[in-house]
Design a protein that fits this description.
A hairpin with a 2-residue loop joins β2 and β3. Strands 3-2-1-6-9-10 form a six-stranded mixed beta sheet, with helices on both faces. The chain is 30% helix and 21% strand. The protein has one domain: NagB/RpiA/CoA transferase-like (Rossmann fold). It is of the alpha/beta class and 179 residues long. Belongs to the 5-formyltetrahydrofolate cyclo-ligase family. Its cofactor is Mg(2+).
């Protein structure tokens, strides 16, 4: 795999996402959130890892707020920790941290085993492996997790390579949900 090729693909996807997020983002978000709700119901996932979105990512905040009202669901989000992250229960207030990412306060609460993880992507390669922002945080997290929850990738508009750009350690989706 050519690292420059992966980097060029990442840059082109980010440009596509920035352009896409200017047009019909609210409408695309609603479509994707509805698909996520249906998948969560169908899978009967109880412990769900979501993300707090950046501007070009699917806005998961309405889904987080809806699921938090359900007493049978536990919502977790990533909390940057060392070279990866740990999962913490979603709660307010949120604070802007490294890379402009918002996070709740740190928690020493031991999270439940997650059933499903909803993960933003920059793109995917031909075999459905995630191309992210290039920090490897999600890859390291899932490599260290010790079990595999259902992995769901989200993106406003699918950006897919027609070749293999991933490496062995890159995570692969069970589902990819776009508008």
């Amino acid at each position: 795999m050519n690292v420059n090729h992966k980097s060029d693909f990442r840059k082109s996807c980010i440009k596509k996402l920035e352009f896409s997020s200017r047009f019909s983002k609210f409408y695309k978000d609603k479509i994707i959130i509805k698909k996520l709700e249906n998948l969560i119901d169908k899978s009967k996932a109880k412990n769900i890892l979501l993300y707090i979105p950046l501007g070009t990512e699917v806005d998961t905040k309405p889904l987080i707020n809806k699921l938090r009202k359900n007493k049978n669901k536990n919502i977790y989000v990533p909390f940057m920790y060392e070279d990866s992250f740990k999962i913490v229960k979603y709660r307010l207030p949120l604070h802007r941290k490294k890379f402009g990412i918002k996070e709740p306060n740190n928690s020493f609460y031991k999270a439940q085993k997650i059933d499903m993880a909803i993960i933003p992507i920059v793109g995917v390669d031909i075999i459905g492996k995630r191309i992210g922002f290039g920090k490897g945080m999600y890859d390291r997290f899932f490599d260290r997790l010790g079990y595999k929850p259902i992995l769901v990738f989200t993106q406003l508009t699918l950006c897919k390579s027609d070749e293999i750009l991933s490496e062995k350690h890159d995570i692969q989706a069970d589902y990819i949900i776009t508008s």
